[in-house]
Amino acid sequence: MIDAHPHRDPLVPPLLDAQGRTMTYLRLSVTDRCNFRCTYCSPASWGGKKDLLTPEEFERIVSVFARMGIRRVRLTGGEPLIRPDILEVARRIAAVPGVEWLAITTNASHLERLAVPLREAGVTQLNISLDTLSEDTFRRISKQGDFGSILRGIDAAVGAGYASLKLNAVVMSGVNDAEVGDIIAYAHARGITPRFIELMPFGQGTPVPTAQLVERLQASGLPLVPDEEPHGAAAGPAQYWRAPGGRVGFISPLTQNFCGGCNRVRVASNGDLRSCLGGRAQAPLHTLIRGGATDAELALSIRRALGEKPDGHRFTEPGAGSSLLSMMGIGG
């Protein structure tokens, strides 16, 4: 195991995990509540955490991570845009020295109103969740939410001039897998990069393996070819292909494990650090902050938790799903 805090000063980069991987990317959940109830993400039984961090506390955590080498921050949820103070949260984090890239993952339901203000607050990229182009299928996936607001929000995001827009669809067999070609056309017509995600074992549904999905698309007449161009750290775990209208991404946590290149750490909306999406190692950053901990003490706690980060998830092992929190509980 790698020593997770090899420096006398724990705030000095690099920020390493137990496998010696360098962490540069923080996924920060700002709420675990959502205005949708998607079957694969938000079970009806999920009540949500009540003790959420304040904008000042989020800023403090990000500033410590930035001093340790974090350069990219993504705000997640739940649905982050339901926080009434989301613009303040975004402004504070975008202004933290060392943060080069601030993104938000959203269901787009509030983007009609917030797309421009978020960009002005310093958000550089939006990842928008859109699993279907059919309102009937949307009702099947989520029992609540305004489908029309999603489409209006996407158009507002396109008009706001973001540096990068991505559209994420979780593919479920017999639910939305027949729509993948239509979603690609919809996204490319708006200058958005579509990405298709294998369903992970957090909720209901049957996943469609990426290789099978690519074969289906090629058989339907879409000339997909592997994209050999490097896309840098911002590309994340997605593998990209080229189509006539632009790139198409596939994220394959089950069939094409990408844990070997992991560079991320997660903090939940109540300040619990989780070293891995599928792991249990934690650090109670909120308790430390409210107890008067120094930045160095926070950094040491972060390094200790990352010192227990596994080499990869265990999603494919029998019974793995039963031991995991919902995606809402983990923070995206």
What does this entry look like structurally?
The protein has 10 helices and 12 strands. The chain has a 12-stranded mixed beta sheet with strand order 7-8-9-6-5-4-3-2-1-10-11-12. Helix 1 crosses helix 9. Mean pLDDT is 89; it is low at 320-324. It has helices at residues 55-68, 86-94, 111-121, 135-141, 147-160, 180-189, 210-219, 285-290, 295-306, 327-330; strands at 25-29, 72-76, 101-106, 125-129, 164-171, 193-198, 225-226, 239-243, 246-251, 264-267, 272-274, 282-284. Strand 5 (164-171), helix 6 (180-189) and strand 6 form a beta-alpha-beta unit. Helix content is 29%, strand content 17%. It is of the alpha/beta class and 332 residues long.
Summary keywords:
single chain, 332 residues, alpha/beta, twelve-stranded mixed β-sheet, globular
Number of helices: 10
The number of strands is: 12
Any idea what the shape is? globular
Binned strand content: 15-25%
How much helix, percentage-wise, in residues? 25-40%
Biggest β-sheet description: 12 strands, mixed
- Main sheet strand line-up: 7-8-9-6-5-4-3-2-1-10-11-12
Q: CA-to-CA gap between the ends?
A: 27 Å
Average pLDDT: 89
Secondary-structure-based class equals alpha/beta
Rounded to an integer in angstroms, the radius of gyration calculated over CA atoms is 19 Å
Uncertain runs with pLDDT below 50, 5 residues or more?
320-324
User: What is the N-to-C succession of helices and strands?
Assistant: EHEHEHEHHEHEHEEEEEEHHH
